[in-house]
Structure formats: C-alpha cells, structure tokens
Amino acid sequence: MTTRLFVPPETSSLPLSLPPVAPEPARPGFPYLAAIAPVAASLVLWFATGSVASLAFAALGPLLAVATMLDARRQVRRSVRVAEEGRAAALDGLRNEVGRRHAHEAGELWSRHPPAAVLVDGGAAPHWGRDVSAPVVLGSATVQSAIRIEGSPADDLDRAVLDLARRLEHAPVVVEVRDGIGLVGPANLVIAAARALVVQVAEAVAPDVVSFAVPDGAAWTWAGALPHAGPARIVVRDPEQASASPAAAGSRSRGGGAVPGGGPAAEVVIALAADASLLPPGLGVVVTILGPRTATLARRGDGGVVHLVPGMLGVEQAATWATRAAGIAARQGFAGGTRLPALLPVAELPTPARPGHDRSTLSVAVGRTASGILELDLVADGPHAIVAGTTGSGKSEFLLAWIRQLAAAHPPERVAFLLVDFKGGAAFEPVAVLPHVAGIVTDLEESEAERAVLSLRAELRHRERVLRDAGVRDIGLLDADVPLGRLVVVIDEFQAMVQRFRELGAVISDIAARGRSLGVHLVLASQRPNGVLGDQVTANAAIRVSLRVMNRADSMVIVGTDEAALIPVDRPGRGVVDRGDGTPTPFQSAIADASSIEQVRRVFAGSDPVRRPWLDPLPHLLEPAALAASVRESAIAVASDRLAFGLLDEPDLQRRSVATWSPEEDGSLLVLGAPGSGRSTTLTALETAMRDRAAVEVTRLGGRPAEDWAALIELAQAVRVEAPHPRLLLADDLDACLAAWPDEYRHAAVAALEHLLREGRRHGIAVAASATLAHRLGGGVRELFGSVLHLRHASRSELAHAGGSPDLWHRDDPPGAGQWRSRRLQVVAADPGPSRPAPRPAEVDLLASGLVAIATATPQRDLVDLRAAGHAPLLLVPGGERQTIAAIAADEHVVVVGDAEAWASAFSLTSRVRDASRLIVHGGSREFRALAPTSAGRTGSVALPPLLADADRECWQIEPGGRAVRRVWKTTETAPNVRSGN
C-alpha cells in the first residue's frame, strides 16, 4: 500500500480564543406594583358604583404578581440554557479549528521530514544535499503543538480544549543523526528501524559525500546497491556481528579524506542491540522498541521519555529504492562517489584517425557519461535531434563540439552543414572556417534566413531526383561515386525563427518527415522548445538533449525527467540526453576550442566547396549584361513577345528566373513604389527591352506638363484614326504629374488614359505607368491595369493595402528591388540615355495681314510689350466697340488688345474676328473662351487648347478655321508685372 502524506489547505493565522462564560443572571424580585394596582382599581370602582362585586377584582392583584414572578424565572432559566448551548457550540467550533490547524501543522512537519516509507513509495528523485548531519525521522508521537489559545480557563471544558491544543498527535519525531542513534529491542524490529534511517540519510546526502558501512548478513545485502561512496561514513553496528562491511563499492579505499565542502571525514554510528547495556557509550539518542507500534525515546542529558510509534522499512522496499537511487546517481554523473568532469575538452574524446566515407553512419563522440564516452548518431539514433538549454547552460558550445566532431569524422563531400543562428550569428562563427559549412544564416538578415530555409524544400526535391535516378530509396545505399552527402541543418533559437516566420514551421515539419531517407538531418536548439515543435518534428526527433533549463516542465517534455531543471548554474555543459531509447542519461558536453577546429580545417583544406542548398540573394545592382546572360541561360526560353526587365528569386526552386512582361497577355502594367524605389528605372528597362525587340514608337509622360498633355492627346486621337502599329506609352509618376494639372486638363487626361487602357491593346499600344500610391489614381484608372509590379513601399501595411505580399517587404531594399508575381524581383539598371530637350514653340506671329485680335488677362502690360516690339495696338475697353470698329476700318493692319470682359461686351466685333482674323490668347481659359471659336479649341473630342508650360511667357495662336497652337509671347524685361487673375 502506498503511503501518502496529507497536507490540508492553509488555515487562518488569526489567534484562537476561549469563548466567554455567560454571566450569572440576577434573581427576579416580587412584583409589588403589579399586585397593588388591581386592588386600588377595585376600591375606586366600589366607591364609584357602590357595587360590592367590584371588590372581587382586588383578588387579581396577588394572582398576577405570582404569575409574573414565575414567568420571569422561566425566562432566566431559558437565557442560561441558550448561553450554555452557545458556549458549547463555540467550544465545538474551537475544537474543530484546533483539529484543522493540527492537521495542517502535522502535514507541514511530515512534508519537511518525510519518513522512509514515503521516500520509497513516492518515486521522486532524491534531493541530495551536502550536509552529513541531515535530520531523520524516528517515528511518530504526540508532541508539543505550536498552537496557542488565548484566555483563562473557566471550567473543565476550557481546560480540556487547552490541553487538546497543546498536544499534536501523530507528528514526526526528528533527530540529527550526527549525534549517534542507538536502537534497542528485538533484532528484526531494530534492523527494520535502522534500515529506515539508512534510507533517509542516503536520500538526503549526495553519494560523493557519505558512504555506509553495514553489518554482514542477508538483512543488509540490499545496501550494496547504494551509490554512496563519499568520505563521510555512516556505520551501522550490531554487537552480534563481528564487523561492519562497506555498503558501496570503493568505500574501503576512501575511508578517510575530507568531506566535500570542507572539514575532515566524519563517522556517525547507528548502533543496534538487544539490551541497552550493549550499546556503545556517547550516543545522543536511544530508542527502545517494545513492539511494532510501541517504542520509547531517551535523549542524552534529558531525563524525559517520549513514547512513539517507530518508523520501519522492509527489505524489499529498501532494495527497490537503492536500485532506483543507483540509476539516478548514474544519470546525474555520480560514479563511484565522483562527479562528471566540470570541463571536458574535445581533445579528450576519441576522433577517428582517418575520416570515413561511409554514408551509413554519423556516429561521433560528443561528451562523457558516468559509464563512459557519449556517442550520438543522427543516422542510427535520429534522424533528428532537439536540444534545449537556457542562457549560460552551454547549449551553443555543445552544438559547436558536435559540429566539430562530425566534420572531423567525415569529409565535406559526405557531410555538409547549414547553420542558422537566430541570436545574432556569433554562435557559429568559430566553425565558419570549416569547408563543410555551406553557409551561416542569421536573424540580422531576415530575408536571407527565409530564403535559406525555403530553399531546403527544393533541396529535398533535388535529393529525391538523385535517389530516383540511382534507383535507390535511401541515401545510405548510394554508390560511393554519387556526389550527394548528408546535410545537417543546425538551427539555434528555433523558437525565435518560427515566431518570426510562421510559415517556416511547415518547411521544418516537411524536412522532419522526409529527411531520414534523403540524408537531411535537423538539430533544433531552443531555450524552451516546449510548445513550438509540431507533431512531425517531435515524432521524428528521437535524440533529445536538455542542458540546464529553468523549470521542470521543460525538462520533462524534452527528456522525460526533471533532472535537467536541477542542474546547478555553475555547471555549463552538464545535461541529460535521451538517445532514443527512453533512458535519460546525465552527461558532460565537450568543448571545442579554436585550435581543435583549426586542426579539422587543415585536414580538409584542399577539399572542394560543398554544394550550397540555396543561391545567393539577388544583386543590389543588376547590370544589363548579367540580365542578358540570364536570358541566354534560362531553362525556359523567353518568348519573343515578352519583355525581360529583371530577375526573380525562386528559393523554393533553388533558381533564378527572368522577369518578363507581355502587354498582350498581361495587360497594362502599373509600377508602384515609394520615391527612390526605382520606378523610373523600371519604365526605362521596359522601354529598352521594347526597342531591342522591334521598331516601336515610345511616348513617355512624366516630364513637362505641356509636352505630356500634347503627347497624350495626340496618342488618344491616333487610336481613333490611325492603323494599328506597335507603340509604347510610359507614364512616370502618374499620380503626381496629373495632380499638378488644372482640373479641366486633369479630368480630360484621365478620360484619355482610360480610353487608351481599354482600347489601346487592340491598336498595338502597350501602357506602363508608375505611381507612388495606387489609390491616388482613382478607381477607374487603377482597375484597368492588368498587372501590378510592387517596388519598395514605405511600410509593410502600405504594401499590403496596395495588393502586394507583406512577407516580401524589406525596409532597406535597394532601388529596383521589389516583387513580381509573388516573387522577389530586382529590375535591371537600364541606361535611360541622353535626355531629349523639349521642343520649343515658335514665337507668336503678329504680322498677319488684316486684323489680329488679342485676348489677354493683362492688357496694360501686353500693350507695353507690343509697343516695344514696334506695333501700334488698339486697346479694346468695355463700351468702346464702335470706336474700335472705326479704327479698324481706317487701317489694313490693326492689332486689337482687350481683356475677356471687353471682348465679351463687343459682341459684333468678336463675331467678326473669330472667323476671319488671327486670334491670340495670352491668359487663361476665361480669355480663351471669350475670344476663340468653338472649333478652334477642339482637339479630337476634347474641347481644350494645348496646355501651356508658362502662362506668362506662352500664349495660344489660332488661325482662321484652324486649331489653337502654343506660341511664345514676346515680352520685354522692363514690362511691369500687373497681370490679373483668370
């Protein structure tokens, strides 16, 4: 039967008090007034009525008085009874509370000092300390309780409660073993009691601190399994035995020496005898056992005697515990009373004299256990491993030693390492010199870390192809000449990697499931692997290593025991390993110093570089020659109708591919990105690719508004009237350039652009535009683009809002870097070529025969300019139409100048000049509408004149029956700037 300790819940710390005694009630007196009152009342009635019958009421007085007195006495007796019942209930509650507190007090005592039966049946690992004078439990007895009750006792009931509170029954009787203990009584009983004491000391004191010397005989054979062999000695003496023999191997040779922690070797005696006179002198405690449940205890110098129930332990129980303790001691590094080494250089471990080329094993020595060298084999024991360890536990040093040993035992063509460090990258720097290392990935380059791990899926496919071509199912069956070695992926701080890149957990699970036969092995290290490892990983990671961890739950999850949580802080490299056989074994990890790693590097200095499972990142600057080479080397030929403008990164396929755009298949292209992200470069790359493919007419917007307007309207008109032929429209900074235009021009330009996006592809017009923010273009334009290319955006959220993949966002992307079809992209650095100067309009012509009409926003300033140029203009003012017409009739060549209001008021003159005269408009739309004929302003279907680059220095000139064209206005440097608004 298993013995269990009962520890009641914490009770109140409020003080206890005796209930108060009810005071003696006062005896009720005779109610004289109640007796006199009816007599007086009957006399008054007799005098008033003269009726003798009223005197009969006088008899009620004594009757009521007697009844009142009797009722008062009844009430007194009742109150006394209620008070006594209340006090009795209070005493019952007090006794119950005392019982609860006694149970709690006894439970705490037993928890601090568990008896041998509980230690044996509990199953917990021993809590070995360094103090030889550990307290032991002799049995149970009634002892003085720490509970106190306030108040003075009033009667026997109070005294009984106080006596109950003072006595704690079934409490442990604890003594220190260092003073020596004598056990007197029948042989079988004293041996059982001594057996319980030995087990308690063995559980409390470490094996390298104490050893046991026990009598010969079958009753003590079990003690030979105890792992204790320290310098301090516990000697069990039996006068009936001739001598005492050591209980643990090696104690004979270490009978002297010093106790760890200081002080000479100690010897403590537990003496057994049938009679007290046979005990050696000087024992501090003597227990006389009268029966299985009866014994007395006497202390030296104390005349009192304590009656107790002695604690005893059977042979089978003790033997079972000794065997379990020996196993635990071996796993914790106690071997013959000694600990594992605190420091283990890797040079002290065996290393093969000649590297092996066998693919069927990866067995190497990585540390030392109590029984010898610790070897781990990722092939036979794995195929994967999990390593846990908190900061300062030696986790990184263990990984370095393992990598060094694997590299020393196998050439690079048989074993390669991919090292991923998510705590800065310094952990694996010592082994970076090894030719076996394919690369070191750190969290300082998040994009590189993600690429490397994603590339592992492509590595699995590559290995599957190699095995399929060789006709085998396992890498260990490949012929020696097949160039395929095992790949060990070591990830330090695996938890941090998964938390940052959630999707990589699926990649690791895939490798864990398929890596065994393909020769890909995972070594996943983390401070707390609990909760971040999926079922696929844990099911295939048979090798479990736990160095020191912070709590027992982490240790239990990794190695099935809490021993890793009990490792001292000053023992880096100490850990517990489960090699896949379900047996946790303590070990000391080796340390690989720089010289040992350099030794391995020199051995393989002439080896070829190992095959990297991933390509380098895309270059920050992609030269046109490099793109051309990639196009030539591309496994998939670039179609003639597609424009190559960059390279795509495909880490999951272990390759790069050419980024192409086909206007026919992909539709119009919108390039989005922040300022400086390479939008203009991308459009230039498309223009260069288009010119290289065929002769094409390129129209580029994004320069001067006037030229952009003219080019856009001309292209929109050409769609309607010209035959289809290849043309390319490039609109740079489309959202910004149109926003600066006047409203009427911007609306017209948007309408023209929408028409080109809808109908241009049928007429051979390809459209590619760039913008900073897509929503600034308006829904009508934005939705007409068939493809979107995302360059660097200002933030991850902005990229996601624009429709890009936020996982591919990087703050420090160079110009031209972005994403295309959910792949990382680098655009070629195309040369834009020499800038072409904008065509300058001709100067305005005022020398026409006949009348020249000028509508201007600044008539006075323009008069000065015209007179300075040698003209004699007439000023048209509101109401002066008749005088102006008369002046025109008298001269063949007249220049008439007026503002919009003047021309609007001169209706007859305006109608005359609109159809037959040269018109000049120097101002804005108000002046244009006031003077120009309706047809003059039409450009295709847009009733607007050309957009002026500078309204002060440019104007519109309209010939009779013609369209408005841009002209340069002749000005003088001295002309006063008195221009009014439109």
Automatic annotation (TrEMBL):
Regions of compositional bias (Low complexity) in chain numbering: 242-252
Record region (Disordered): 240-259
PROSITE patterns reported for this sequence: FTSK
Domain FtsK as annotated: residue spans: 371-556
The keyword Transmembrane is assigned to this record: yes
CDD domains assigned: TrwB_TraG_TraD_VirD4
Sites where the protein binds ATP: G389, T390, T391, G392, S393, G394, K395, S396
Membrane-spanning parts: 54-72
Keyword terms, alphabetized: ATP-binding, Membrane, Nucleotide-binding, Transmembrane, Transmembrane helix
Name this protein carries in UniProt: FtsK domain-containing protein
Organism: Agromyces salentinus
